[in-house]
């Protein structure tokens, strides 16, 4: 009898498990076990129903696990945009959610296998709407903004400028004037022309306009042109009206930051061309404010300009509607429409900081959003009421007064890393460390648009150096700043002012009035500091290899990867010649760098001869040597490898790091790049070849400087030669028949003298000429010449 009861119970359980959803289950029941039901439905291959239950779990529970499960379900259903939105929401709720993080990576691979690359996937994500409002209530779903704000049972979330503006109107009606103006100001940040949808906005703004100011951003977004330009390119490529109006905020800020340099004018012009409802009449008059810039427009934007110019001329060359864009003839633009920040005394305390948090949240910049929100809440805990509607998911922040840190008395230099390679990152950060020490500032590192590079480096515990997240609580993120931009290709006038500042001024006093200075560069500028006449003595200005040792070391993962390969290959059992080939990559280095994707046969022959000549010069008559071959493209690596095998009788082995990820915009790609730099640093001879140029390469300088950080290689044979490795260059650009040259091994500053002496000649002399460094062909001597030459 007992066995029969057990069997009957088992059959009942099977029957109940097959009855999905279970009896009495309702999607709108806030107390139902939605997540369990969803998983059972998914296991039964009833994915559309499972998704609805996962949505219910996300709506009523709202935890990161709920959104992670919803994202996976959408991914299985091949709804890639919704999957991206849900998984990112899970990461926002809990940045340490390994399940969500892993599935984000899986999603990118899965989407790509179905024809959606990263750009297309991001576009799908921006358009996706998780739609967590209950479907059985039209009033709760809201066909119009005012209806949509009447408060569903789940938490209200405001996303569009019209919704945020409508909320402002509700607050005005409640008598909460300051908070209403705060919401309205945020709506204007999102869409400065929100009055096209909400006409009453013009009446309110007209009363405040005379005291309103431009958006300036904070340490996470708005202080650095490279970050702003990255946002422009990443978030607004595929948007149409009215969503594209949010682009105006960032395009205008970019213009204010870069002035005449690329690409502020381009970006504003492109925005005007995309805002059809009101902005087309502004395009040509705006570009004619700086007619000398028009020939410098990007090629694709020149075509846009010519089209709009023809339209403008055919329609009577009309002036743009007011308010028109103005220009002072030097470097300052004015456009009343872009003054979207309300005066501080007209909005709640801390509102401007909260605005930065809300904007960062909209861009999925969650680290900055969290830090900015925390600061806003310390200033004014009541802002938590607004954050629930505009930044859902940060419920862990206490809705109570926090302890305000004491006003920071220190000064800071914030180093923003642009999208450059490991070599440029290293030389800039070391230069920034020197500048910070000269001016008595804390160096603050912002990985910025190059965030994946943090996987290649580990910052050392050096006093006076902090990451941005560590520094913000004491630094605050709203102070006015002094911005320094130093790039080899930039507006000549801006470059001249920076060379004057770094090369001629007394930095201890010239920057003293600025508590926060920001730096964005792709140049090694330590040599300029070393020759500044005010810094002749008493300052510890570290050369590159020494500064690198103080500041950071290759990551443990990169060291492990390099050491594992070196051990497997019996590294240095014979002399190793490291050959680094930089070839042209699609979308990379397209200004003045590699000219082809692989070297031609004639130069391949020169490479072989150069290797043989270098080995003979450095080691005499050795029987055999190995070559470690690194290249930026797989095609170049294969071409060079095949040639060396056929043409070098004394060549032993050709070594190359296996399963290499060449994409330096991924964490794995930067780790592999660093592992290659470490292996190059253990070679006996370094030969570099940048296809079509004289071979300037900061990656080469980095690899040589890493010879002084050898802790990871203690189990390998010792270096055959201490100090820098002999450095050779193969090039056809310097007029020598053998095309093999010896080059300086220590890092040099890239050439900016081509801007002209009217730029480099400053109040204390020619800042660049006095470096006495040779660049390009003058820095190279034919390898066959044995006499020493001072370079």
Automatic annotation (TrEMBL):
Residues 1-19 form the signal peptide. Pfam families: TPR_2 (PF07719). TPR repeats lie at residues 64-97. InterPro entries: TPR-like_helical_dom_sf, TPR_2, TPR_rpt. It comes from the Eukaryota. The keyword Signal applies. Keywords: Repeat, Signal, TPR repeat. SUPFAM superfamilies: TPR-like. This is Uncharacterized protein. It comes from Effrenium voratum. The lineage of its organism: Eukaryota, Sar, Alveolata, Dinophyceae, Suessiales.
